[in-house]
Structure formats: C-alpha cells, structure tokens
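Worked example

This section walks through a single chain of length 156. The input is the sequence exactly as stored; nothing has been trimmed or padded.
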Amino acid sequence: MSHPNAALITLFYQAFQQLDAETMASCYSADVQFSDPVFTDLRGAAAGDMWRMLCAKAQGFSLTFDGVAADDHSGRARWVATYTFSQTGNTVVNHIDANFRFRDGKICEHHDHFDLWRWARQALGAKGLLLGWAPFVQNAIRQQAGKGLAAFQKSR
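Given that input, the structure is written out below as tokens.
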C-alpha cells in the first residue's frame, strides 16, 4: 500500500496526463509555493493558473512519470513531458525531477528541476543551442513566460 502523499503525487500526474488542470490545482494547498527554472517563484493561485495555462495551450502533449515516493512530509517523482513548443513548432522532450512537501494532505511546496539550456536547445533551435546557456537569454525566457501567465490570468 502506498503512502497517501504518494497517491496524491500520482493523482497530480495522472490529471496532468489528461490535461486536467483543475484536479492538479486541487492537489495544492491554498498557499502553495511552486518553482522551476522558468517560473522561479509562484505562490498560491498563481501556481494553479500556470498549470491551467499550460494545459490549455498544450499541443502534441504526452506525459510519463515514475519514481513516485513520499512520506508524511516530503516526496519526489520523475516526469517527462513531450510537446510542441507553440512559438517555434519544435518538439520538446523535457525531463524533470520534482520534489514536494506536504501539509494537511495537500502539496504545499513543489519544486521542479530541469536543464533550462537543454530545454532552450529543443524549444528555440539554433538560438537556444548557441545562447540558451546565457543568463540574459534564460532571463528573457522567464520574462516571456511571466508575461504569458499574467495575460492568461487577466483573460480569466
């Protein structure tokens, strides 16, 4: 029998496989803190809105996950998202390591780790290959993503 927090992680990724952002967001506490190399500090509803935006815009999307493990306080999983990056039409296969913290049966912290340069090489092509390692390009990626999330939130 798996730990209830492992079941919560599994529910989260099964919902993601179905692009069910509402179920994903329901796995989070109201004050959740999310971070990854692009969205470095999302809190509360903004984390759920990020998943709503990503699910709504997903093209050519598939997801696999494994390595789910959890105890009363923390957990982890590995997941791979394959999708078409809409700005370039390039296929991205992003390998992510996720770490979680739990409180009262919900995810209260979610930190995803992946190689942003590797992502940029796939998503942006030659520009990402040549410049994706550079802080100014990585910051531009973060700013663009932040603007996209703000626009999505405003349109809701």
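What to look for: The two ends are 40 Å apart (CA to CA).
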